Amino acid sequence: MVSPDVSPYDALLLLSFGGPEKPEDVVPFLENVTRGRGIPRERLEEVGQHYFGFGGRSPINDQNRAFLAALRADLAAAGIDIGVYWGNRNWDPYLTDTVRRLAADGVRRAAVFATSAYASYSSCRQYRENLYDAVSAVPDAPRLDKLRNYFNHPGFVAPVVDAVLVGLGDLPGDVRDGARLVFVTHSIPTAMNDASGPRGGAYLAQHLDIAAVVTARVAEVTGVAHEHELVFCSRSGAPHIPWLEPDVNDRLEEIAKDGVPAVVLVPVGFVSDHMEVVYDLDTEALATAERLGLPASRAATPGDDARFVAAARELLLERAAAERGEPVDRPALGTTGPLWDVCPAGCCRNLREDRPALCGADSPDVIRAGGSGSRIG
């Protein structure tokens, strides 16, 4: 078997959010997440109760470990011999420490696969700022290239479709055909959505696009055209600041009053079952539905589904070929089309302060390289 060519890359870096591993980690972790926002410790301790209810341990790190194991196995099966590393924004293993490891191991250029599929400041540009900070802190750090956002990649969408089908199957037969598909994602401030992407509104538009794709695919399989909508969870800002709405619990109240017979909650904004899923949906939203007498099920996230794992490999090979100047096929579902390799100047801008970020058309790493990997699609 001829091994696929991953040059110019000699490593693949999984970049994620991070989470506490034990009770004493919870408040320090939340301090990392909210640094610079002036949130009192008492409020952080209140939010920390979500984690304490699960033994003080977020599921996200274990899910990343499972994904890494599956990814290494997938790469090996494909004949790809490349180092695979892991770094987090907010908890161990911290990104800067991982970049030090990359440099110490002699890595010169690494592709970065982030566990966030959509465009916005918090889900894309902030990670790019983190990459800039990490590289700036490490002498002789490797070049890091963030792989394109993949919300509409078939390897992400297919597991979501299958999870919805399972969720429908978990509902009582007499309400299944009338069930509404309630797609759920993390709420963000409306101003952040308005600044997402190069022209604004990308975060919301991307979710709506892929929710329509999933709903259509489900209809093809079941022969039933389910109603669907997008709702939000995990609002955490000050009350006077507008965030994307409606909240999933508020909307379930309205859905029940409207006589909808059942719902499938589809956490389309999340790649794995981390805290926003196991608490906000499995704990709160399903309890709301039960109180309302509304039959409800929750669809799984892609997690370490083999198709999602393979998508990371495919995105690596796609970007490697593009960097070598070769023609590439960029699979994408829906109406948005494949996104860019290198973010356009000003994409998903930081509304609080002007901070440098890697992997953008106006970034130092791209300017030095001559602007390779410009916008696709």
Low-confidence runs: 371-377
- Return the CATH topology of the largest domain: Rossmann fold
CATH architecture of the largest domain: 3-Layer(aba) Sandwich
What is the string of helix and strand elements?
A: EHHHEHEHEHHEHHEHEHHEHH
Using the CA coordinates, give the radius of gyration: 21 Å
Task: Provide the residue-averaged pLDDT.
Answer: 93
* The first-level CATH class name of the largest domain: Alpha Beta
Number of helices: 14
Strand order of the largest sheet: 2-1-3-4
Query: Which overall shape is indicated by the principal axes computed on the Cα atoms?
Result: globular
3D architecture notes:
The chain has 377 residues and is α/β, with parallel strands linked by helices. It has two domains: 11-150 and 304-368, Rossmann fold; 154-298, Rossmann fold, CATH 3.40.50.1400. The chain has 14 helices and eight strands. The protein has helices at 26-34, 41-52, 60-77, 95-104, 121-137, 154-169, 173-176, 190-194, 202-222, 248-257, 275-278, 280-292, 306-323, 364-368; strands at 11-16, 83-88, 109-114, 143-146, 180-186, 228-233, 263-266, 296-298. The strands form two sheets. The chain has a four-stranded parallel beta sheet, with helices on both faces. Helix 3 crosses helix 13, helix 6 packs across helix 9 (202-222) and helix 6 (154-169) packs antiparallel against helix 13. The longest helix is centred in the middle third of the chain and has 21 residues, at 202-222. The radius of gyration is 21 Å and the shape is globular. The two termini are 32 Å apart. 47% of the residues are buried.
